[in-house]
């Protein structure tokens, strides 16, 4: 059986696509009859309806999706039902990124909304001005900028207060002209160059459960085989929903080769459009380096620590949401007015990584917080210090930045004692690893409304989940593991979008947000020379009635 799986070619040749799961089918878009004039430009005023997508709206109005995004910066975080957006009547693509009206139009060239990856230096270079120009014009304290802050960009030389050195509109036009050159890519109205006649894909898995020749999983509990099963089930769904799809998929069992170098040097990856895997970052790195310059996209399907490969590799996709973005989910529940206490373990070797990440997240959100670090050997003597960080009469948001089961158990016992003895109102925030703890009393989770932000969470009450379960059980006569759900989500998302949108999707994945069975996908990239990283999380809340709720959201 293993040799049969070394190279499995699946050729799917069918005819007309009629859609996927109901949640993926965009509704018909009607062109708005309402028009408005803004700054001399005529726009349609379009109200977003349920399940409408950026693609379906842009197609209906006959205008590139990028133009709509440029004129409506707020939709970069996703379309919302009932939201009003402006669409140019003349259908001309706008490159005036986030240029808005200002009380000082004669002094500024643009209003720029700060993105998560930008610095004052990068913004200054973008508009050909000095950092001092922007800082002085916007009264920036210590030259610090905040994510989503709107900066008024003055013309060059403002800081010198020399009108003769103020640049004309040509400076802005030069910048936009450069962006036009950078944006010469396939759009939804010039798709023939970027559409696939057939997708050539590779799936690299250690089907025997080995890592560098050593067994890492029991043979009877092979998660990689379960991943393979979920991937195949996605292909069955794709056959039904995309009848015109032509796919040549080759499954490569990496256990059958001494190392990854044998696979890359054999040339068997050369004719690929997209490669899924390998699953381990050190092996993945070799494949990414080999495929550079070959116009081959590589997807990291499992390893959450392979996000570093995105830098310098524009054809790379990191599917697993890094810890930083998972912790950013905390900011969806608290703000700078909240009473926040950060608790982490005191270590001889320095602060734990998750604690450092959490501090950065809280600081980025301008959240004021108290800190408490201690060693569990202190026992109940830590209670007075704990109590001094809490407030009466308000909700205490306690963020426990630790993946240590023993430390978390101790923290929750202390908090529960203070809650019951002094009637403190406490809401706790943890990490995804807590869901696997066995020695922690789960009653603490519910009593203190534990919030966990994670990439992977399955809502078994959803109809789509029920449908997947029924098909998986019928096909494999077993229950799907999270690995099967993960594979299904990855295969369906990438292959469905790659077939229907071609290079438009692969080169502009940040516009293709999707809610899947186990995960959500919201890919972002830090510059055109870097790859994509998934930033989406689901926030799970443990309720006092011992139920849980799932709050979904995309984070940038």
Topology:
Blueprint: E1 7-13, E2 35-38, E3 41-47, H1 54-61, H2 65-71, E4 84-88, E5 108-113, H3 120-127, H4 131-137, E6 150-154, H5 169-182, E7 199-205, E8 210-211, E9 214-215, H6 223-241, E10 246-253, H7 260-265, E11 274-276, H8 281-291, E12 297-300, E13 316-318, H9 323-328, E14 339-345, H10 353-364, E15 370-374, H11 383-388, E16 395-400, H12 405-422, E17 425-430, H13 442-447, E18 451-454, H14 463-476, H15 482-501, H16 503-507, E19 514-515, E20 520-521, E21 523-525, E22 532-534, E23 537-542, E24 548-553
Parallel strand pairs: 7-10, 7-11, 11-12, 12-13, 13-22, 14-15, 14-16, 16-17, 17-18
Antiparallel strand pairs: 1-10, 2-3, 3-4, 5-6, 8-9, 18-23, 19-20, 21-22, 23-24
Helix pairs in contact: 3-4, 6-15
Describe the structure.
The protein is α/β, with parallel strands linked by helices. The chain has four domains: 31-88, Roll (Membrane-bound Lytic Murein Transglycosylase D, Chain A); 108-182, Roll (Membrane-bound Lytic Murein Transglycosylase D, Chain A), CATH 3.10.350.10; 199-321 and 462-530, Response regulator (Rossmann fold), CATH 3.40.50.2300; 326-454, 3-Layer(aba) Sandwich (Rossmann fold). The protein is built from 16 helices and 24 strands. The protein has an eight-stranded mixed β-sheet with strand order 1-10-7-11-12-13-22-21, sandwiched between helices. A seven-stranded mixed β-sheet has the order 15-14-16-17-18-23-24, sandwiched between helices. Helix 3 (120-127) crosses helix 4 (131-137) and helix 6 (223-241) packs parallel to helix 15 (482-501). The longest helix has 20 residues, at 482-501. The model is unreliable at 1-26, 92-106 and 162-192 (pLDDT under 50).
């Amino acid at each position: 059986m293993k040799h049969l799986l070394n190279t499995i070619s699946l050729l799917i040749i069918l005819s007309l696509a009629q859609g996927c799961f109901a949640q993926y089918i965009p509704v018909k878009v009607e062109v708005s009859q309402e028009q408005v004039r803004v700054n001399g430009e005529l726009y349609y005023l379009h109200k977003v309806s349920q399940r409408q997508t950026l693609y379906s709206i842009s197609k209906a109005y006959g205008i590139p999706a990028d133009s709509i995004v440029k004129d409506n910066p707020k939709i970069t975080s996703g379309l919302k039902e009932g939201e009003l957006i402006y669409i140019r009547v003349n259908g001309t693509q706008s490159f005036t990124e986030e240029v808005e009206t200002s009380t000082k139009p004669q002094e500024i060239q643009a209003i720029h909304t700060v993105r998560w990856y930008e610095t004052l230096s990068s913004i200054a270079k973008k508009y050909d001005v000095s950092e001092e120009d922007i800082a002085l014009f916007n009264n920036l304290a210590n030259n610090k900028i905040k994510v989503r802050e709107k900066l008024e960009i003055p013309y060059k030389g403002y800081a010198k207060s020399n009108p003769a050195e103020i640049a004309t509109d040509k400076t802005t036009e030069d910048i936009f002209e450069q962006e036009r050159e950078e944006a010469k890519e396939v759009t939804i109205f010039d798709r023939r160059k970027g559409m696939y006649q057939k997708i050539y894909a590779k799936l690299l898995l250690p089907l025997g459960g080995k890592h560098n020749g050593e067994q890492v999983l029991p043979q009877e509990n092979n998660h990689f085989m379960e991943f393979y099963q979920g991937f195949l089930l996605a292909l069955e769904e794709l056959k039904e929903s995309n009848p015109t799809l032509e796919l040549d998929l080759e499954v490569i069992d990496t256990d059958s080769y001494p190392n990854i170098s044998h696979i890359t040097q054999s040339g068997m990856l050369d004719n690929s459009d997209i490669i899924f895997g390998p699953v381990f970052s050190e092996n993945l790195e070799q494949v990414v380096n080999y495929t550079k310059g070959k116009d081959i996209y590589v997807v990291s399907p499992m390893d959450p620590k392979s996000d570093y490969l995105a830098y310098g590799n524009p054809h790379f996709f990191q599917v697993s949401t890094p810890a930083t973005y998972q912790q950013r989910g905390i900011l969806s529940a608290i703000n700078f007015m909240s009473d926040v206490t950060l608790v982490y373990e005191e270590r001889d070797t320095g602060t734990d990584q998750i604690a450092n990440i959490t501090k950065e997240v809280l600081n980025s959100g301008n959240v004021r917080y108290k800190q408490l670090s201690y060693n569990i050997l202190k026992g109940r003597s830590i209670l007075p210090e704990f109590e001094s960080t809490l407030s009466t009469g308000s909700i205490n948001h306690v963020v426990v930045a630790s993946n240590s089961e023993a430390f978390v158990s101790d923290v929750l016992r202390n908090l529960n004692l203070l809650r019951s003895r002094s009637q403190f109102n406490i809401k706790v925030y943890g990490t995804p690893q807590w869901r696997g703890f066995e020695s922690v009393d789960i009653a603490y989770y519910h009593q203190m409304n534990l919030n966990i932000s994670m990439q992977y969470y399955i809502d078994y009450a959803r109809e789509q989940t029920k449908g997947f379960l029924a098909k998986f059980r019928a096909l494999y006569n077993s229950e799907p593991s999270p690995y099967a759900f993960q594979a299904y989500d990855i295969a369906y998302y990438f292959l469905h979008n790659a077939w229907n949108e071609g290079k438009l999707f692969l080169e502009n994945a940040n516009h293709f947000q999707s809610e899947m069975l186990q995960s959500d996908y919201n890919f972002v990239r830090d510059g055109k020379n870097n790859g994509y990283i998934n930033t989406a999380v689901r926030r799970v809340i443990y309720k006092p009635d011992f139920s849980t709720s799932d709050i979904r959201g995309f984070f940038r």
